[in-house]
Sequence to fold (209 residues):
Amino acid sequence: MSDHTLDEGIDSAELPAIDFHSPGRFALHNPPVDLSEPQDWDAAPFQLGQDAALQRFSKPTEIREHALAMMQQARRSLCIYSTDLEPWLYHHSSIQEACTRLLVAHPRNQLRILLREPTRAVKEGHRLLQLARRLTSSVHIRKLQPDYPDPGGTYLIADNCGLLERPKVDQYAGYALYCDLARVRVRQAEFDKAWDHGLSDANLRSFLL
Fold:
């Protein structure tokens, strides 16, 4: 499927709503930072750009499997919108390796990260920050402008068709879409607008230099 098959005038109001049921609230307890080599993660068995069915998840292991699958299969770009670059999800060698393979495959491939608050990742260390220091022209990180409307939740966009989203930051429940160009187009436009208003955080800048 190509972008030409989509109505150019599509917007979020025209998209069918996702029937989302929350399993309840919980407290996120991020594990201590460990830069040693942990056990490799397994990727979810779905194909980016092919599997159209919505995949629901409610457990951390399921989220990790979907995130890794999308990152391993992306061929052009990844965009992450996150609170603090969630170490329980993104601070792992499997994620770092998947991003590295994407970024070194072509000089135009990019990883963009938009954070609400980068302080924790800077203070405690994070594999994607390490990657940003190595690949300065391919990894770009900004902080959400304080006065900019917070869209809520967290999400990962892979190329022009993959979306991994948790509607509420304090819940694991969410969904993965491997081939939904219309919904990804809307989310990408929201990300790009927030990105354009984003800031270069002093803590990040000094860390990455």
Q: What stands out?
A: Confidence is low (pLDDT under 50) at residues 1-13, 25-37. The CA atoms of residues 117 and 127 lie 16 Å apart. Helices lie at 60-73, 87-90, 93-105, 119-124, 127-134, 181-196, 202-208.
